[in-house]
Amino acid sequence: MEQAPSLRSGPHDEAWYAARASRGVQGLKAYDPGHDLVALRRQSGAAQLVELGSNENPYGPSPAARAAVLDRLHELHRYPDPLGADLKRALARVHGVGEDELLLGNGSHELLMMVAQVFAGPGAEVVYPRYGFAVFGLAAQAAGATARVAEAQPRTDAMPAGHDLQALLGAITPATTLLFLANPNNPTGTWLGADALRAFLARVPEHVIVVIDEAYAELADAPDYRSALALRDVHPNLVVSRTFSKAYGLAGMRVGYFVAPAGLVAVMERIRESFNVNLLALAACEAALGDAGHLAWVRTRNREERTALVGALQARGLRVFPSQTNFVLVEFGDRTAAVERALVERGVILRPMGGYGLADCLRITVGTRDENRRLLAALDEVLA
Ligand SMILES: Cc1ncc(COP(=O)(O)O)c(C=O)c1O
């Protein structure tokens, strides 16, 4: 039988289609999600993998979220509420904001792409920091905008590769429409203190929409950490991005949200796909928001395990970046690639950082006590 031509090679291959794509997309590389976990799980058979590559919450969501999902299974033939009104009401209560100041996304990833699509196009510039979340660059480029990457602070023992706020301000020009900054940051785990963030925002010109990505905010408990939500009154150009994927343990449900000025939300609503957040996800997130106890428990467990893991890694002579998240960035130097490969062979999955320009580091999600113990045991074998 004749073989169907591959879309990646042959007369109508990837290059053929790329030549027909918009300018921004022509130069893009697809988001690198790390290892093919499904294939690895299949290979490992009965032996469970230790999956510490994607900054997921190993404890899962509130039991109330699971119950809410089961409760809605009889409605699968219905479209979800296109307005997400119940979830917005719940979020508005939690954050003390108006429902019209909330935008729901199929993960915050979707909203980060959308905000660039709406506010940055050809001719516009988008500023974000070196070692910022990979989606910032993707969003800028896909929109056809020009990316301006601000250099990070040099690595030191005190605060390695932290955001250089001066460099970010210096990268802003009259053509800048959008600035992305994650606090705490992925992939470094580092954070900006409240004073630094306030002083920074005060110096960003009002024509620039600032998106502070707070995917890990619920897990941050450093005395100097504050959410940018408190600064919204002072800065009409401020957007705060949050997600249910991390502290709420609902990564599989794909829900994120923006807290932003009502006018900005209204403009972004013009391109939001009407049913972008599904029925089960809406129910799960609303229920999860109602269980503050579970969130507090996750936060405590994560802090305890993070502290223990950092100590154990440091005791092995490794340099660990300070973190306010559920992951740590660790320097392995020249042996990074070999260590990573050897860990995969032992069923331990971490995230290689070559794509971020940090090829001498691995990012390690803080797992449960048992997962961390298995990671450390495998690491001891590999480093021996
Ligand atoms: C900083 C940051 N922002 C946004 C996201 C995207 O989260 P989601 O699309 O699951 O809401 C992630 C995911 O890892 C992240 O690390």
Structural features, described:
The protein has helices at residues 14-18, 23-26, 37-44, 63-71, 85-95, 108-119, 134-142, 165-171, 194-203, 262-269, 279-289, 292-315, 336-345, 369-383, and strands at 50-51, 102-105, 125-129, 146-150, 176-182, 209-213, 238-243, 256-259, 319-320, 327-331, 348-349, 351-352, 361-365. It is of the alpha/beta class and 384 residues long. It has a 7-stranded mixed beta sheet with strand order 2-8-7-6-5-3-4, with helices on both faces. Strands 9-10-13-12 form a 4-stranded antiparallel beta sheet, covered by helices on one side. A two-stranded parallel ribbon has the order 1-11. α5 packs parallel to α11 and α6 packs parallel to α7 (134-142). It is globular. The chain binds pyridoxal-5'-phosphate (PLP). Pyridoxal-5'-phosphate (PLP) binds next to α6.
Condensed summary:
This protein has two domains: 32-55 and 293-383, Aspartate Aminotransferase, domain 1 (Alpha-Beta Complex), CATH 3.90.1150; 63-291, 3-Layer(aba) Sandwich (Aspartate Aminotransferase, domain 2), CATH 3.40.640.10.
Q: What is the second-level CATH architecture of the largest domain?
A: 3-Layer(aba) Sandwich
Can you identify the CATH class of the largest domain? Alpha Beta
Query: What is the CATH topology descriptor of the largest domain?
Result: Aspartate Aminotransferase, domain 2
Question: Which ligands are bound?
Answer: pyridoxal-5'-phosphate
User: In terms of per-residue confidence, which ranges show pLDDT below 50 for 5 or more consecutive residues?
Assistant: none
The order of strands across the largest sheet is 2-8-7-6-5-3-4
Q: What structural category characterises the helix and strand content?
A: alpha/beta
User: What fraction, in percent, of the residue positions are helical?
Assistant: 25-40%
Total domains, how many? 2
Count of helix runs: 14
Question: What separation lies between the terminal Cα atoms?
Answer: 53 Å
User: Could you give the count of β-strands?
Assistant: 13
Mean residue pLDDT: 94
* Beta-strand fraction estimate: 5-15%
- Let me know the largest β-sheet: 7 strands, mixed
Order of helices and strands: HHHEHHEHEHEHEHEEEHHHEEHEEEH
The CATH homology group name of the largest domain: Type I PLP-dependent aspartate aminotransferase-like (Major domain)
